[in-house]
């Protein structure tokens, strides 16, 4: 007999959902792992670029060392410059592109274009002032700034700040934008203070906003000394937004913070101190976590997989619901064909089973009826009567073959349908069933009880209906009842 399906709608929906959520969780873990690997790779790339910036700064150090050792290699009076004084009294020097002599052919002069300038305080345009003469002596060194500052896109600017009151910078617009408000800021930066305390350190400071462009930058700086005489500071500004090669939002979310007593932001993840050999640093790189951006990134990176999981969830849920409905359809169909008390077939079930039996040489139908069942109910109660009915159902089930059809028609009547190749064996089987019921009846009632039966056996080739067989068996049952009961008339 079928049992009602254990698959509920809740199970059909939640079980696939749990599986889908588990798969999404695995995707999320893989995404987080991949993000961590990408961030670490980007940390390495950015550190390499910082190391390269140190080498660029080292090149300027070498140029100045050569200058301090050998002096200016060429008379700077032959280098063409334009000079002008602005309203704040600053004097600006910038090379004249038209007068610059090129070693290339005439049609290739544009290759020699340089991009640097000098800006100094009052007196920088006076040929008789010491500041003017110092600027003039260092102009050959200054011309190399143009080429070094354009080596990499993340180099925002290269500067030389002299304690005598002027600045050499590339690109030139960084100098042109310098005003009196920026001067005290520059001279109070950590790099200016630190370089006057030590002759050996290259220092990486920041992040801070560039006083000229306003963009976040890191600054690499070192002091210049001529025989322990402080000659100023060489500074290289690094544009943080250009350090990363990764696409957004990864690149814009890698931040720098000073490694001091200030706590990192609450959304900082995967912090890593910046360490470069031979450089004094105080920075920490970290990834700024944004739930909104990472959720969007997770969906963008896994859209096909997530759609696949959704389709799998819908498919699996549909399968569960289909199995539940199909199982319950069989269950209710089976339930409509069964007697609820004994689980034997009812009359409808018997008729359907009869149509599906494989034909053999003989067929037989027997009807068994409990003798004096009304008296049993009246004497012992309906509970005992129900136990008697259930007991008969169990005996019939145990003493018939799987190919036999057993049913309860209601009340105290039971019907057994058999087929076989030997008529005698069918008779013996039906007789045995009746005796087995009577033999064990004392297990239900101390006084025991009996059943009577009527049976009809016919060759299957004869033309007759199932109803006609039942009618003939019922007639034989009547004969058994009238003959004294507790017997089978065949």
Automatic annotation (TrEMBL):
Membrane-spanning segments: 12-32, 306-323
Matches recorded under PROSITE patterns: GGDEF
All copies of domain GGDEF, residue ranges: 361-490
Principal localisation: membrane
Reactions catalysed according to its record: 2 GTP = 3',3'-c-di-GMP + 2 diphosphate
Localization annotation: Cell inner membrane
Pfam family, one: GGDEF
Enzyme Commission number, as recorded: 2.7.7.65
CDD domains: GGDEF, PDC1_HK_sensor
GO BP annotations, alphabetical order: cell adhesion involved in single-species biofilm formation; negative regulation of bacterial-type flagellum-dependent cell motility
Matching InterPro entries: Diguanylate_Cyclase (IPR050469), GGDEF_dom (IPR000160), Nucleotide_cyclase (IPR029787), Rev_trsase/Diguanyl_cyclase (IPR043128), Sensor-like_sf (IPR029151)
GO CC list: plasma membrane
Keyword Transmembrane set for record: yes
GO molecular-function terms, A-Z: diguanylate cyclase activity
Keywords: Membrane, Transmembrane, Transmembrane helix
Keyword Membrane in annotation: yes
PANTHER family xref list: DIGUANYLATE CYCLASE DGCM-RELATED (PTHR45138:SF9), REGULATORY COMPONENTS OF SENSORY TRANSDUCTION SYSTEM (PTHR45138)
NCBIfam families to which the protein is assigned, alphabetical: GGDEF
Protein name per Swiss-Prot or TrEMBL: diguanylate cyclase
Source organism (scientific name): Vibrio algicola
């Amino acid at each position: 007999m079928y049992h009602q399906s254990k698959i509920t709608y809740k199970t059909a929906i939640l079980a696939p959902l749990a599986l889908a959520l588990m798969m999404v969780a695995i995707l999320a873990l893989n995404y987080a792992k991949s993000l961590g690997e990408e961030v670490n790779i980007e940390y390495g790339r950015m550190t390499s670029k910082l190391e390269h910036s140190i080498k660029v700064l080292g090149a300027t150090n070498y140029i100045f060392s050569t200058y301090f050792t050998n002096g200016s290699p060429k008379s700077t009076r032959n280098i063409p410059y334009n000079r002008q004084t602005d309203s704040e009294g600053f004097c600006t020097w910038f090379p004249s592109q038209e007068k610059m002599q090129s070693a290339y052919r005439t049609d290739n002069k544009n290759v020699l274009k340089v991009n640097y300038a000098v800006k100094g305080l009052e007196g920088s345009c006076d040929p008789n002032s010491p500041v003017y003469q110092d600027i003039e002596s260092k102009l050959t060194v200054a011309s190399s700034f143009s080429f070094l500052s354009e080596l990499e896109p993340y180099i925002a600017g290269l500067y030389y700040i002299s304690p005598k009151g002027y600045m050499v910078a590339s690109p030139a617009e960084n100098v042109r934008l310098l005003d009196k408000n920026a001067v005290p800021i520059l001279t109070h930066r950590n790099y200016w203070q630190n370089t006057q305390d030590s002759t050996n350190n290259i220092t990486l400071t920041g992040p801070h906003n560039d006083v000229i462009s306003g963009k976040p930058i890191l600054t690499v700086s070192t002091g210049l000394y001529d025989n322990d005489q402080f000659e100023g500071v060489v500074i290289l500004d690094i544009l943080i937004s250009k350090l990363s090669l990764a696409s957004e939002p990864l690149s814009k979310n890698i931040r720098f913070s000073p490694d001091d007593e200030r706590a990192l932001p609450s959304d900082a993840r995967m912090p890593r101190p910046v360490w470069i050999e031979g450089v004094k640093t105080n920075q920490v790189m970290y990834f700024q976590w944004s739930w909104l951006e990472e959720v969007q990134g997770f969906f963008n990176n896994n859209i096909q997989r997530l759609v696949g999981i959704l389709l799998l969830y819908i498919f699996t849920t549909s399968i569960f619901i289909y199995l539940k409905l199909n199982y319950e359809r069989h269950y209710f169909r089976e339930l409509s064909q069964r007697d609820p008390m004994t689980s034997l077939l009812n009359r409808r079930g018997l008729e359907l089973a009869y149509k599906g039996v494989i034909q053999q040489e003989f067929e037989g139908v027997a009807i068994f009826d409990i003798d004096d069942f009304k008296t049993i109910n009246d004497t012992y109660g309906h509970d005992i009567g129900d136990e008697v009915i259930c007991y008969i159902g169990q005996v019939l089930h145990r003493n018939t073959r799987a190919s036999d059809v057993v049913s309860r028609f209601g009340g105290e009547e039971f019907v057994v349908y058999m087929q076989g190749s030997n008529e005698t064996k069918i008779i013996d089987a039906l007789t045995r069933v009746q005796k087995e019921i009577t033999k064990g009846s004392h297990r239900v009632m101390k006084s025991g009880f009996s059943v009577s039966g009527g049976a009809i056996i016919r060759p299957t080739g004869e033309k007759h209906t199932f109803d006609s067989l039942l009618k003939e068996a019922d007639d034989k049952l009547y004969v058994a009842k009238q003959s004294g009961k507790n017997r089978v008339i065949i």
